[in-house]
TrEMBL record:
Residues in ABC transporter domain copies: 4-234
UniProt main location, coarse: membrane
Bilayer disposition of the protein: Peripheral membrane protein
Sequence similarity: Belongs to the ABC transporter superfamily.
InterPro entries: AAA+_ATPase, ABC_transporter-like_ATP-bd, ABC_transporter-like_CS, ABC_transpr_MalK-like, ABC_transpr_MalK/UgpC-like, Mo/tungstate-bd_C_term_dom, NA-bd_OB-fold, P-loop_NTPase
One GO BP annotation of this record: carbohydrate transport
Localisation per UniProt entry: Cell inner membrane
Membrane spanning stretches: none
Official protein name in the record: Sugar ABC transporter ATP-binding protein
One of the Pfam families matching this protein, by short name: TOBE_2
MF annotations from Gene Ontology: ABC-type transporter activity; ATP binding; ATP hydrolysis activity
Lineage: superkingdom: Bacteria
Amino acid sequence: MAQVRFDKVRKAFGAAVAVEGLDLVIEDGAFVSLLGPSGCGKTTTLRMLAGLEFPTSGTIAIGDRIVNDVAPGKRDIAMVFQSYALYPHMSVGENIAYPLKKHGVAKAEREEKVAQVARTLQLEHLLARKPRQLSGGQQQRVALGRALVRDPQVFLLDEPLSNLDAKLRAHMRAELIELHRRVGRTFVYVTHDQLEAMTMSDKIAVMRDGVLQQYAPPKEVYDRPANMFVAGFIGTPPMNFLSGEMTGEPGRAAFRCAGTDLPVSLAGGASPERKVALGVRPEDVSLGSGPFTGTVRLVEPTGHETIVVVESPAGSLVTRAGADVALAIGERVPFDLEAERLHLFCAASEARLLASFTRSGAPAQA
C-alpha cells in the first residue's frame, strides 16, 4: 500500500511560508503532478515527502506510516532530480546498481536486477558506457533506472524533463507514461509545464503561493477550474477574462457584455454577485458571425491553426481559428461566444460561480 497523505501540512522558512495548510491524498498507484509557477511550493512539498525538508506542522504519511521523522533512506521512496546526478566515473550499469550496492545487495542479485531494469528502459546496449557518452534522453533513462532498481513504493520526480529539448521531452513523456503503466507504483511529479501535467497525470494538484488551489483529473481542471488563477494558468493560450456586471434578480439575471446581455441562471437561485468576470477559452470564440464585433489586432499562423487577437468593447480576446482563415490587422470582424462553454467568476474572491448561460432559450452548464 503506497497511498500518500498530507494532513494540514505547513512549511515555513523563518517568516517566509512555502506551504500552507496542505491537505492532499495521492492514491496508491496514481500518477499525480504538482503544478504551478516558480515559488508556488511544489518542490518544497516534494522535498518534504522525500525527507529532505521537514514540515513545520502537520503530518505526512506513506501507506499507514507517518514519516515526519523518518530518514529519507528509510521511507521506501526513490527520487529523480532535474540534474540526473549520475556519477561520471561509473558506467551506466554501475550507476543503476549503485543503490543496491550501497544497501549490501549481493553481486549476483544486483546484476539480475540491473539487467531487468535495463530491459524495461531499453538500456541493455548502453550498460558499459559512461554518462558523458549518452544523450540527454539516455541520461534521463539511466536516472530513472537507478530509481526503478530499488522497487520503491513511491517515485518522486522533480522536473526531470526540463533540461531536454521539445522533441525529446515529448518522447520522454510517452516513456514515463508507459513506465508508470508497467510498474504500477505511485508517481509524484513536480512540473511548471502544464502540458506535461495534462498529458501524464491521473490527477493534477495546482498550487499558488503555497496553497492548493484545485486537485482533480486534468479534464476537470480544464473544463471546471476552481478559480480564476487555475483558469488562467491551465490552457495555451490562456483563458480570456471579460470584466462586467450582473443585472437583474435571482432567476432572471444576465451578464452585460459590450452592450449585449447573456442570460445567466445561478445554482440554487443564489443572488448574483454584481462584480463578476466572464471566462472564455480561445477555442470557444467563433469568428465570422455573432452579436459582438471587434477589431483584429494580431494574426499568428501556427500551421495547424491561427491565433487571432480581437479587440472589442468587452476587452481583448485571444481566439483560435482555422489554418486557412483570411483576416487582416485592422479588419472589423463579428464574433460569438459558445454559451455552453462560458465560465463565471466572482471578481472579488476569484472563485468559480456555479452558473449556466442561456442562448436561444436553451440553458447550458458553464
